[in-house]
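Please complete every field before forwarding. Incomplete forms are returned to the sender.

SECTION A: IDENTIFIERS
Entry label: holo-294
Bound molecule: magnesium ion
Molecule representation: SMILES string

SECTION B: INPUTS
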Amino acid sequence: MENVHKSAFVAVVGRPSAGKSTLVNAICGQKVAIVSPVPQTTRNTVRGIKTGDGYQLVFLDTPGLHDSDKSMNRRLRDLAVHALRDADLVLYVIDTTRPPGPEEDAIATRVAPFASKILVAVNKIDARESDVPTARRFIEERLPGAPAFDLSAEQGTGVDALVAALAEASPPGPAYYPAEFYTDQEPVFRIAETIREKVFLHTRNEVPHAVYVEYQSHHKLDDGTLVYEGDLVVERETQKGILIGSGGSMIRLIREEAERDLADIFDYPVRLSIKVRVQADWKKDERILKKLIQ
Ligand SMILES: Nc1nc2c(ncn2[C@@H]2O[C@H](COP(=O)(O)OP(=O)(O)OP(=O)(O)O)[C@@H](O)[C@H]2O)c(=O)[nH]1
Ligand SMILES: [Mg+2]
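SECTION C: PREDICTED COMPLEX
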Protein backbone atom coordinates (compact mmCIF):
# COMPACT_ATOMS: atom_id res chain seq x y z
CA MET A 1 0.00 0.00 0.00
CA GLU A 2 3.02 2.30 0.29
CA ASN A 3 2.65 3.55 -3.29
CA VAL A 4 -0.90 4.80 -2.99
CA HIS A 5 -1.17 8.44 -4.07
CA LYS A 6 -2.25 10.74 -1.25
CA SER A 7 -3.86 14.15 -1.22
CA ALA A 8 -5.44 16.56 1.22
CA PHE A 9 -7.06 19.93 1.52
CA VAL A 10 -5.23 21.60 4.38
CA ALA A 11 -6.89 24.54 6.19
CA VAL A 12 -4.24 26.93 7.49
CA VAL A 13 -5.57 28.74 10.55
CA GLY A 14 -4.24 30.89 13.36
CA ARG A 15 -4.38 34.37 14.79
CA PRO A 16 -3.81 37.40 12.57
CA SER A 17 -0.13 37.88 11.68
CA ALA A 18 0.91 34.41 12.86
CA GLY A 19 2.66 33.86 9.52
CA LYS A 20 0.07 31.68 7.74
CA SER A 21 0.54 33.28 4.33
CA THR A 22 4.33 33.34 4.69
CA LEU A 23 4.25 29.61 5.47
CA VAL A 24 2.00 28.77 2.51
CA ASN A 25 4.35 30.72 0.24
CA ALA A 26 7.38 28.91 1.69
CA ILE A 27 5.79 25.50 1.18
CA CYS A 28 4.55 26.18 -2.34
CA GLY A 29 7.85 27.75 -3.36
CA GLN A 30 6.10 30.76 -4.89
CA LYS A 31 4.37 33.89 -3.73
CA VAL A 32 0.81 32.65 -3.58
CA ALA A 33 -0.53 34.92 -0.85
CA ILE A 34 0.31 38.48 0.09
CA VAL A 35 2.17 39.13 3.35
CA SER A 36 2.49 42.21 5.57
CA PRO A 37 3.10 43.08 9.22
CA VAL A 38 -0.46 44.42 9.47
CA PRO A 39 -2.92 41.94 11.04
CA GLN A 40 -5.76 40.86 8.76
CA THR A 41 -3.84 41.09 5.54
CA THR A 42 -5.51 38.02 4.07
CA ARG A 43 -9.18 38.52 3.17
CA ASN A 44 -9.88 35.45 1.06
CA THR A 45 -9.30 31.75 1.18
CA VAL A 46 -6.24 31.64 -1.03
CA ARG A 47 -5.26 28.26 -2.41
CA GLY A 48 -1.64 27.23 -2.63
CA ILE A 49 -0.70 23.87 -4.09
CA LYS A 50 2.28 21.67 -3.26
CA THR A 51 2.83 18.58 -5.38
CA GLY A 52 5.48 16.06 -4.35
CA ASP A 53 6.43 12.49 -5.02
CA GLY A 54 3.21 10.53 -4.50
CA TYR A 55 1.20 13.35 -2.88
CA GLN A 56 -0.53 16.67 -3.43
CA LEU A 57 -1.42 19.14 -0.69
CA VAL A 58 -3.88 21.95 -1.37
CA PHE A 59 -3.50 24.66 1.26
CA LEU A 60 -6.38 26.97 2.11
CA ASP A 61 -4.74 30.08 3.54
CA THR A 62 -7.44 31.76 5.60
CA PRO A 63 -7.88 35.19 7.22
CA GLY A 64 -6.59 35.28 10.80
CA LEU A 65 -9.21 34.19 13.32
CA HIS A 66 -10.34 37.29 15.10
CA ASP A 67 -13.30 37.76 17.43
CA SER A 68 -15.05 40.95 16.47
CA ASP A 69 -18.60 41.47 15.38
CA LYS A 70 -18.06 44.01 12.65
CA SER A 71 -19.61 42.78 9.44
CA MET A 72 -16.30 42.43 7.63
CA ASN A 73 -14.66 40.55 10.49
CA ARG A 74 -17.61 38.22 10.78
CA ARG A 75 -17.23 37.29 7.11
CA LEU A 76 -13.49 36.81 7.47
CA ARG A 77 -14.04 34.54 10.44
CA ASP A 78 -16.71 32.51 8.62
CA LEU A 79 -14.20 31.76 5.86
CA ALA A 80 -11.71 30.33 8.32
CA VAL A 81 -14.35 28.37 10.20
CA HIS A 82 -15.72 26.79 7.02
CA ALA A 83 -12.23 25.85 5.85
CA LEU A 84 -11.60 24.26 9.24
CA ARG A 85 -14.70 22.14 8.99
CA ASP A 86 -14.31 21.05 5.37
CA ALA A 87 -10.58 20.34 5.22
CA ASP A 88 -8.94 16.91 5.47
CA LEU A 89 -6.19 18.35 7.67
CA VAL A 90 -5.73 21.50 9.71
CA LEU A 91 -2.44 23.33 9.99
CA TYR A 92 -2.61 25.51 13.08
CA VAL A 93 0.06 28.23 13.01
CA ILE A 94 1.27 29.61 16.35
CA ASP A 95 3.38 32.75 16.61
CA THR A 96 6.10 32.17 19.23
CA THR A 97 6.97 35.87 19.42
CA ARG A 98 3.70 36.70 21.19
CA PRO A 99 2.49 35.14 24.43
CA PRO A 100 -0.64 33.01 23.85
CA GLY A 101 -3.16 35.18 25.79
CA PRO A 102 -6.93 35.38 25.24
CA GLU A 103 -6.80 35.57 21.42
CA GLU A 104 -4.84 32.32 21.11
CA ASP A 105 -7.05 30.75 23.78
CA ALA A 106 -10.17 31.51 21.76
CA ILE A 107 -8.60 29.96 18.65
CA ALA A 108 -7.48 26.85 20.49
CA THR A 109 -11.08 26.41 21.67
CA ARG A 110 -12.36 26.80 18.13
CA VAL A 111 -9.94 24.25 16.64
CA ALA A 112 -10.12 21.72 19.51
CA PRO A 113 -13.07 19.77 18.00
CA PHE A 114 -10.83 19.02 15.00
CA ALA A 115 -7.90 17.82 17.13
CA SER A 116 -7.59 14.50 15.32
CA LYS A 117 -6.68 16.21 12.04
CA ILE A 118 -4.50 19.03 13.41
CA LEU A 119 -0.76 19.54 12.92
CA VAL A 120 0.85 22.57 14.53
CA ALA A 121 3.43 24.94 13.05
CA VAL A 122 5.40 26.56 15.87
CA ASN A 123 6.47 29.58 13.86
CA LYS A 124 9.02 32.42 13.95
CA ILE A 125 11.70 30.47 15.85
CA ASP A 126 14.29 32.69 14.14
CA ALA A 127 13.06 35.82 15.90
CA ARG A 128 14.90 37.20 18.92
CA GLU A 129 11.66 37.36 20.95
CA SER A 130 10.68 33.79 20.08
CA ASP A 131 9.63 31.70 23.10
CA VAL A 132 9.25 28.10 21.91
CA PRO A 133 8.81 26.39 25.33
CA THR A 134 5.78 28.56 26.16
CA ALA A 135 4.17 27.78 22.80
CA ARG A 136 4.93 24.08 23.23
CA ARG A 137 3.38 24.05 26.71
CA PHE A 138 0.29 25.78 25.36
CA ILE A 139 -0.09 23.15 22.61
CA GLU A 140 0.44 20.27 25.01
CA GLU A 141 -2.25 21.69 27.29
CA ARG A 142 -4.82 22.58 24.68
CA LEU A 143 -4.18 19.95 21.98
CA PRO A 144 -2.42 17.10 23.74
CA GLY A 145 -0.54 14.81 21.39
CA ALA A 146 -0.91 17.02 18.29
CA PRO A 147 2.22 16.75 16.14
CA ALA A 148 4.07 20.08 16.38
CA PHE A 149 6.95 21.37 14.25
CA ASP A 150 9.32 24.19 15.18
CA LEU A 151 9.99 26.30 12.12
CA SER A 152 10.67 29.64 10.54
CA ALA A 153 8.34 30.26 7.63
CA GLU A 154 10.37 33.31 6.75
CA GLN A 155 13.70 31.49 6.53
CA GLY A 156 12.31 28.12 5.46
CA THR A 157 13.89 26.22 8.38
CA GLY A 158 11.91 23.17 9.47
CA VAL A 159 9.40 23.48 6.65
CA ASP A 160 10.38 20.23 4.88
CA ALA A 161 9.72 18.13 7.99
CA LEU A 162 6.27 19.67 8.31
CA VAL A 163 5.46 18.99 4.64
CA ALA A 164 6.58 15.36 4.99
CA ALA A 165 4.32 14.93 8.02
CA LEU A 166 1.36 16.52 6.21
CA ALA A 167 1.89 14.22 3.22
CA GLU A 168 2.12 11.23 5.54
CA ALA A 169 -1.09 12.22 7.37
CA SER A 170 -3.04 12.71 4.12
CA PRO A 171 -5.66 10.18 3.07
CA PRO A 172 -5.34 8.28 -0.22
CA GLY A 173 -6.60 10.52 -3.02
CA PRO A 174 -5.90 11.89 -6.48
CA ALA A 175 -3.96 14.98 -7.52
CA TYR A 176 -6.62 17.68 -7.89
CA TYR A 177 -4.40 19.99 -9.94
CA PRO A 178 -1.71 19.49 -12.59
CA ALA A 179 1.73 19.13 -11.02
CA GLU A 180 2.98 22.51 -12.27
CA PHE A 181 0.15 24.47 -10.59
CA TYR A 182 1.04 26.27 -7.37
CA THR A 183 -2.19 28.26 -7.09
CA ASP A 184 -5.62 28.36 -8.69
CA GLN A 185 -6.05 32.14 -8.47
CA GLU A 186 -7.05 34.10 -11.56
CA PRO A 187 -4.44 36.62 -12.78
CA VAL A 188 -6.73 39.62 -12.14
CA PHE A 189 -7.20 38.55 -8.52
CA ARG A 190 -3.45 38.18 -8.02
CA ILE A 191 -2.89 41.62 -9.51
CA ALA A 192 -5.45 43.19 -7.16
CA GLU A 193 -3.88 41.39 -4.20
CA THR A 194 -0.39 42.55 -5.12
CA ILE A 195 -1.60 46.15 -5.25
CA ARG A 196 -3.28 45.69 -1.87
CA GLU A 197 -0.09 44.27 -0.39
CA LYS A 198 1.79 47.43 -1.32
CA VAL A 199 -0.88 49.52 0.39
CA PHE A 200 -0.48 47.35 3.51
CA LEU A 201 3.29 47.76 3.41
CA HIS A 202 3.37 51.52 2.90
CA THR A 203 0.45 52.93 4.86
CA ARG A 204 -0.41 52.90 8.55
CA ASN A 205 -3.14 52.93 11.15
CA GLU A 206 -6.60 52.46 9.70
CA VAL A 207 -5.61 53.10 6.08
CA PRO A 208 -4.75 49.52 5.00
CA HIS A 209 -8.04 48.26 6.39
CA ALA A 210 -9.97 51.04 4.65
CA VAL A 211 -8.88 49.93 1.19
CA TYR A 212 -10.12 47.51 -1.39
CA VAL A 213 -9.14 47.11 -5.02
CA GLU A 214 -11.93 47.18 -7.55
CA TYR A 215 -11.14 45.62 -10.90
CA GLN A 216 -12.32 47.65 -13.88
CA SER A 217 -10.88 46.05 -17.00
CA HIS A 218 -7.82 44.56 -18.60
CA HIS A 219 -6.48 44.07 -22.10
CA LYS A 220 -3.34 42.82 -23.81
CA LEU A 221 -1.12 44.97 -26.01
CA ASP A 222 0.49 43.69 -29.20
CA ASP A 223 3.81 43.18 -27.40
CA GLY A 224 2.13 40.90 -24.83
CA THR A 225 1.93 43.44 -21.99
CA LEU A 226 -1.18 43.10 -19.85
CA VAL A 227 -2.76 46.44 -18.97
CA TYR A 228 -4.84 46.28 -15.79
CA GLU A 229 -7.18 49.09 -14.77
CA GLY A 230 -8.54 49.23 -11.27
CA ASP A 231 -9.63 51.54 -8.48
CA LEU A 232 -8.22 51.75 -5.00
CA VAL A 233 -11.38 52.41 -3.06
CA VAL A 234 -11.11 54.11 0.34
CA GLU A 235 -13.64 55.25 2.92
CA ARG A 236 -12.66 58.90 3.31
CA GLU A 237 -11.13 61.88 1.50
CA THR A 238 -8.23 62.03 3.98
CA GLN A 239 -7.33 58.42 3.12
CA LYS A 240 -7.49 59.29 -0.56
CA GLY A 241 -4.97 62.05 0.08
CA ILE A 242 -2.63 59.64 1.88
CA LEU A 243 -2.81 57.09 -0.92
CA ILE A 244 -2.10 59.64 -3.60
CA GLY A 245 0.72 61.22 -1.60
CA SER A 246 2.39 64.54 -2.28
CA GLY A 247 2.65 65.04 -6.01
CA GLY A 248 1.32 61.50 -6.52
CA SER A 249 4.38 59.95 -4.83
CA MET A 250 2.55 57.26 -2.85
CA ILE A 251 0.39 55.94 -5.66
CA ARG A 252 3.47 55.88 -7.88
CA LEU A 253 5.41 53.86 -5.31
CA ILE A 254 2.52 51.39 -4.95
CA ARG A 255 2.21 51.04 -8.72
CA GLU A 256 5.92 50.62 -9.37
CA GLU A 257 6.49 48.08 -6.61
CA ALA A 258 3.43 46.09 -7.64
CA GLU A 259 4.52 46.11 -11.30
CA ARG A 260 7.95 44.85 -10.28
CA ASP A 261 6.51 41.94 -8.27
CA LEU A 262 4.05 41.09 -11.02
CA ALA A 263 6.90 40.85 -13.51
CA ASP A 264 8.18 37.91 -11.41
CA ILE A 265 4.78 36.29 -11.04
CA PHE A 266 3.75 36.31 -14.71
CA ASP A 267 5.71 35.57 -17.85
CA TYR A 268 4.48 38.79 -19.46
CA PRO A 269 4.84 42.40 -18.25
CA VAL A 270 1.92 43.98 -16.38
CA ARG A 271 1.20 47.70 -16.55
CA LEU A 272 -1.11 49.12 -13.91
CA SER A 273 -3.47 52.02 -14.20
CA ILE A 274 -4.82 52.77 -10.74
CA LYS A 275 -7.24 55.49 -9.65
CA VAL A 276 -8.08 56.31 -6.05
CA ARG A 277 -11.77 56.73 -5.30
CA VAL A 278 -13.80 57.39 -2.13
CA GLN A 279 -16.81 55.30 -1.28
CA ALA A 280 -17.95 56.05 2.24
CA ASP A 281 -18.93 53.07 4.35
CA TRP A 282 -18.10 50.39 1.78
CA LYS A 283 -17.34 48.08 4.67
CA LYS A 284 -20.97 48.19 5.68
CA ASP A 285 -22.17 47.33 2.19
CA GLU A 286 -23.01 43.64 2.27
CA ARG A 287 -22.96 43.43 -1.53
CA ILE A 288 -19.36 44.61 -1.70
CA LEU A 289 -18.27 42.41 1.21
CA LYS A 290 -19.87 39.38 -0.41
CA LYS A 291 -17.96 40.03 -3.61
CA LEU A 292 -14.65 40.71 -1.87
CA ILE A 293 -14.53 38.08 0.82
CA GLN A 294 -14.91 34.56 -0.47
N1 LIG B 1 10.73 36.64 12.14
C1 LIG B 1 9.77 36.02 11.45
N2 LIG B 1 8.74 36.73 10.95
C2 LIG B 1 7.78 36.05 10.27
C3 LIG B 1 7.84 34.65 10.07
N3 LIG B 1 6.73 34.29 9.38
C4 LIG B 1 6.03 35.41 9.14
N4 LIG B 1 6.65 36.50 9.66
C5 LIG B 1 6.22 37.91 9.59
O1 LIG B 1 4.98 38.05 10.27
C6 LIG B 1 4.16 39.03 9.62
C7 LIG B 1 2.80 38.44 9.27
O2 LIG B 1 2.97 37.44 8.28
P1 LIG B 1 1.77 36.93 7.38
O3 LIG B 1 2.27 35.73 6.63
O4 LIG B 1 1.16 38.04 6.59
O5 LIG B 1 0.75 36.47 8.53
P2 LIG B 1 -0.74 35.89 8.38
O6 LIG B 1 -0.90 34.89 9.47
O7 LIG B 1 -0.99 35.43 7.00
O8 LIG B 1 -1.60 37.20 8.72
P3 LIG B 1 -3.13 37.55 8.33
O9 LIG B 1 -3.32 37.28 6.87
O10 LIG B 1 -3.21 39.00 8.63
O11 LIG B 1 -3.98 36.73 9.22
C8 LIG B 1 4.94 39.50 8.39
O12 LIG B 1 5.60 40.69 8.72
C9 LIG B 1 5.92 38.35 8.16
O13 LIG B 1 7.10 38.78 7.51
C10 LIG B 1 8.97 33.93 10.61
O14 LIG B 1 9.12 32.71 10.47
N5 LIG B 1 9.88 34.66 11.30
MG1 LIG C 1 -2.37 36.01 5.61
